[in-house]
TrEMBL record:
PANTHER family given in the database record: L-2,3-DIAMINOPROPANOATE--CITRATE LIGASE
InterPro entries registered for this protein in UniProt: Aerobactin_biosyn_IucA/IucC_N (IPR007310), IucA/IucC-like_C (IPR022770), LucA/IucC-like (IPR037455)
Lineage, opening ranks: Bacteria, Pseudomonadati, Pseudomonadota, Gammaproteobacteria, Pseudomonadales
Pfam (any one): IucA_IucC
Protein name: Siderophore biosynthesis protein
Biological process annotations from GO: siderophore biosynthetic process
Species, as recorded: Marinobacter salsuginis
Length: 611
């Protein structure tokens, strides 16, 4: 057993404070609005433990609340101290009042309020159902089982559980949510082969036999026979059962009939959704692939369909990334990185000629096969989704507490930061590839809680590169017959970005600002490990990487990761602005030497900066 480091020894973790769903949604809404510069505000006098009085304005409302300015300008509010006034008179601190004064159109305010209220209602209902059943000890779970058990939702976005659409039937929310689903079978379709892009690495019949097993493959062929369909002219495609019913009841229903897309019914293995909702884990045969399917609901920032271009490109991107990893021995030796391959895909294609309606169906009928987590583990290893590291458990202790207690906070933290950050950073600095390493896409491989490697997944729409920043040893991905689509597209539309600054933004956004910052918060609240010290550890790590790779110094300079201000994506402002593609704002860089986490912020809407 390793003793805790001296600075944290004797500092027992505090019990996590609970808040109602309504309080949490309101808090995250205000934190996001202030962080992204949507509402104006500043700090008054400093309080104890870094807490300060924040004053802000939302339209005609004036607000006051205790809060802390954290790394990269992130905020933490104490909602119990929130006071709203208008014209000197106190008003209700409810969501309708706040949203009604936001600087956007009436339609956008109404849409946002609908999602916020749905998040509150869904959280309440799902929590009640979950608590009525005996919950497993999440510290004993890993891989897909743990992924399904992570019910908290996005720690930043206030619409973390809106799931708009899962209300056509009163049981849809329970049937298709990871918190309460007991499993369901996929709905199978027969699609004319002329309208289906197929990307398999083995002959088609071998693929179906391997993926489905002999019994389910036989049932699928029997379903074709019963429907009077010729396998030579039609191909099978799995669909999420809720999504298929939604398509049948929506504006594209007549098109499905016109295209002769046939329903074969539900059959085969049972699946349960993971925390991302549209990634489905096989619970009949856990070693079989995870399927990612379109799901036409709206949750957090987006509608959960699949980008049409990305589905056939998924296997190409995976092979390209794996070739980069395989060609660089440092990924095995110094920066252990394991990829969960997306090795096969199917997607409806409008083909030529096509109508706008046919084009709208692209991305609505598709499937991506991804290897099961266990396939990338060796005996004794566990895979922990990174967002689990920042969670509190029912015993009032952090999820990570047994590991912190056993190894000591600082030794465990330093090992974790190195294991999580350096593979992503090396891919960026040495190979010019940005990976979207947010809390759901990233898994920490541990052995008895000690970090071993980083595992990444979900590459079809989570990878970027800049042609000017690719070294000679790293070629661009080869998209084969679809090369023209990507060659003719402008930079920043698909995978190819305009320069290294866009790659840096992706990596620092997903890895630091919206991911590891949550771990920093838990360590400070539970163990008194100051967030300034957390980001100093990260800076030390990146500085050590640069010192160890002097040959990359000019490339690291181009990334400009230690400049005073960096640009980050505005996740909430996308719901408030018509031009969602341009939503971003500047934040103070917590990795700058001597950076302060508590500057006096003022909102500058022209500079889009919290300073």
């Amino acid at each position: 057993m390793v003793s805790p480091d001296a600075d944290t020894a004797g500092l027992g973790p505090v019990v996590a404070l609970s808040e109602s769903p309504g309080q949490r949604v309101t808090r995250q809404l205000l934190e996001a609005l202030m962080f992204e510069g949507v509402i104006g505000g500043g700090l008054a006098r400093r309080g104890a433990s870094g807490w300060q009085w924040l004053s802000f304005r939302v339209g005609q409302l004036e607000g006051r609340c205790l809060g802390r300015v954290r790394g990269f300008g992130r905020l933490r509010l104490d909602l119990a101290t929130l006071i709203l006034t208008m014209g000197g008179r106190r008003v209700a601190t409810d969501l309708p009042t706040l949203v009604d004064h936001l600087p956007t159109s009436r339609d956008r305010r109404n849409a946002l309020l609908q999602e916020l209220l749905a998040t509150v209602a869904n959280t309440q209902r799902l929590d009640a159902m979950r608590q009525s059943c005996r919950s497993p000890d999440r510290r004993q779970l890993h891989g897909e089982e743990l992924d399904r058990a992570l019910h908290e939702g996005h720690p930043y976005h206030p619409c973390y559980k809106s799931r708009l659409g899962l209300h056509q039937d009163e049981n849809d929310l329970l049937r298709y949510s990871p918190e309460t689903s007991t499993g369901f079978r996929l709905h199978w379709l027969a699609v004319p082969r002329g309208h289906l892009n197929r990307h398999f690495s083995v002959p088609e019949m071998d693929f179906w036999q391997a993926e489905l097993g002999h019994e389910s493959a036989y049932l699928l062929r029997a379903a074709f026979h019963r429907a009077g369909l010729d396998w030579q002219h039609y191909a099978p495609l799995p669909a999420h059962p809720w999504h298929w019913q939604s398509l049948l009841q929506g504006r594209l229903a007549s098109l499905l009939t016109h295209l002769d897309i046939q329903s074969l019914g539900a059959m085969g293995d049972r699946y349960r959704p993971g925390q991302s909702l549209r990634s489905l884990f096989n619970i009949s045969h856990s070693a079989r692939a995870c399927l990612k399917l379109p799901l036409g609901i709206r949750n957090t920032s987006a509608r959960r369909h699949l980008e049409p271009h990305s589905v056939p490109s998924a296997p190409v991107i995976t092979r390209w990334l794996q070739s980069v990893v395989d060609a660089d021995s440092r990924f095995a030796r110094a920066y252990p990185l394991r990829l969960l391959p997306e090795y096969a895909s199917l997607a409806f294609s409008a083909g030529e000629p096509f109508t706008p309606e046919m084009h709208a169906l692209e991305g609505e009928l598709a499937a991506i096969w991804r290897s099961a987590i266990a396939a990338r583990l060796v005996e004794g290893e566990q895979a922990i989704p990174l967002n689990a590291l920042a969670l509190w458990e029912p015993d009032g202790l952090p999820f990570i507490h047994p590991w912190v207690e056993h190894y000591g906070l600082l030794p465990w933290l330093q090992a974790t930061l190195g294991t999580v950050i350096l593979p992503v950073w090396h891919m960026l600095a040495a190979h010019g590839v940005g990976l979207e390493a947010h809390g759901q896409n990233s898994l920490l491989v541990v052995r008895n809680g000690w970090p071993q490697a980083l595992m990444l997944r979900d590459f079809h729409d989570s990878v970027e590169y800049a042609r000017s920043f690719l070294p000679l040893t790293t070629p661009e991905p080869d998209f084969g017959p679809r090369r023209t689509l990507y060659e003719q597209a402008p930079d920043n539309q698909f995978y190819r970005m305009s320069g290294p600054e866009a790659l840096r933004e992706l990596v620092m956004d997903t890895l630091f600002i919206y991911n590891l910052s949550e771990l920093a918060l838990v360590l400070e609240e539970a163990y008194g490990f100051e967030e300034r010290r957390f980001w100093r550890e990260v800076r030390r790590l990146l500085g050590g990487y640069g010192a160890h790779h002097p040959e990359l110094q000019s490339r690291l300079t181009q990334l400009a990761w230690d400049q005073p201000w960096i640009r980050t994506e505005s996740l909430l402002r996308q719901k408030l602005q018509a031009d969602a593609a341009s939503t971003g704002h500047l934040v103070p860089n917590a990795l700058l030497a001597g950076a302060s986490l508590s500057p006096k912020p003022t909102i500058d809407h022209h500079q889009e900066r919290l300073s």
